[in-house]
Input
Amino acid sequence: MSEVRKFQKKLLLLGDGAVGKTSLIRRFVTSNFDDKYIVTIGTKVSRKEVKVIVDGLETIVNLTIWDVLGQKGYSSVQETSYRGSEGAILVCDITRKETLQSLEDYWIPSHRLITGPIPIIFAANKIDLMDKAQFTKSEFESFAKRYNSEYIFTSAKTGENVEEAFTKLATHMVKFKPIPRQETQKLKNREIKSIIDAADMIIDDFCENFGGHEAAMPIVRKQFEKVNMSVTNPTKEGLIKIVEALSKIESDFKPQDVVRKNRTRRMLWLEKIE
Output
């Protein structure tokens, strides 16, 4: 009996808000679907084991699936999520053509800047709403061919092709031989021009100083829920409350001089917003 190979792989789901990234993950991991749309705050991490055949060998791939915030402008949060990823499903909504264009204009260049060339699959989601489609299957095929990548039509609602999208990508990730490259250094202290810039910096800064995004993001998410604020429309008042709450949480784990320094830095970012 041949030995079963095992791999650990991190993959991303990328695309604009409301294209169905979270629903695709939920359908794949738990076989459930919920029509209610909730904006993903930061990143959410899920896990699932898949079995695939690669080069004739049974292979188990333990997937760590990162559901990346689809709101543009949160470049620090997104950039941190990209690091260490070995594949990506780029999702668009078949009923909104602008979400397809957004893959080319924003999501492909933003992740490639950090990851370099990695296996990707394009997923046109909400195929159950084909009667409302704003682009054709042939248009989507031509789009994917420009990037020499596979494409698939999915429905998180019905489950159509959802498992296939993830297992196909898992197979590609196992086969992929990455090209050695120097990791892009993270841009520190970038210019803050908007309230979203400030929110992005605050979220990313807390996560980096509190055990990483996977561990700290649920804490951030809870604070946003407490002040009833969305990442799509943050307010200065709400972010001040969040900074204070995060400082209080840090005070239980870090020296007080570190807590004060972190709070001061985050408040200074907010002061730059009129």
